[in-house]
Amino acid sequence: MAKVYIVIYTTYSHIYKMALEVQKGLEASGAEAKIYQVPETLSEEVLAKMYAPPKPNVPIITAAELEEADGFIFGFGTRFGQMPAQFKAFLDSTGGLWAKGGLAGKFAGIFTSTASQHGGQETTIFTTIPYLAHHGIIYVPLGYANPNLFDVSAVNGGSPYGAGCIAGGDGSRQPSESELAVAKTQGENFGKLVKTYVAGKQQ
Ligand SMILES: Cc1cc2nc3c(=O)[nH]c(=O)nc-3n(C[C@H](O)[C@H](O)[C@H](O)COP(=O)(O)O)c2cc1C
């Protein structure tokens, strides 16, 4: 069975809510899907000052665990148009895996969240691709796989690079039905691809 790890960093839970839909999509494709979070690097004191709610109840991943999966879907909100330091710190801890090509040939998709509509939905994912390239991980874009990506009738996150939600400047906006549906599509399409690959390897 194709095994996909959804690896997230979330401060205000938007990414976790999106991850649950990505997981549903992966499971609909027949893949095994488990959600992990990367270690937090901020102190409880700083998180309290940021009004951050408790972390989701999912295990904290270690770099070594990445080797177990056939593919990953990474999810994180933007920080100045790029991945948060927490996720960068986690990826920077994968040097040992990089040295032995431990992740080469695996697949990865990415989804994100931004406060504003033009705060980095595309750049956050795009600037993560070098990490994948250095590992030899195959980046799987979303494309326009879900027509909701064309919907301009309301505020709407997501791009061909990956699903996305708009959290609002104060974080009060929650992922919309449209954005959640795109997240599910990303999981389902990614799962189908990884399943095909795993089935081929087993032949
Ligand atoms: C230090 C910092 C930098 C941020 N930079 C951006 C940004 O460049 N563009 C933007 O739209 N939102 C920005 N945000 C908002 C976050 O992306 C938003 O809180 C996040 O996507 C919500 O996801 P979460 O609930 O999963 O943490 C920033 C937030 C913080 C704390």
From TrEMBL:
What InterPro entries does UniProt report for this protein, alphabetically? Answer: Flavodoxin/NO_synth, Flavoprotein-like_sf, Flavoprotein_WrbA-like, FMN_Rdtase-like_dom
Which SUPFAM superfamilies does its entry note?
Answer: Flavoproteins (SSF52218)
Coiled-coil region(s) at which residues? none
Show the stretches that span the lipid bilayer: none
Q: Which Pfam families match?
A: FMN_red
Name of the protein in question: NAD(P)H:quinone oxidoreductase, type IV
Q: Give the CC-aspect GO terms.
A: membrane
**Family classification:** Belongs to the WrbA family.
Give GO terms: molecular function aspect only: FMN binding; NAD(P)H dehydrogenase (quinone) activity
Superkingdom classification of source = Eukaryota
Mind giving the lineage of the organism this protein is from? Eukaryota, Fungi, Fungi incertae sedis, Mucoromycota, Mucoromycotina
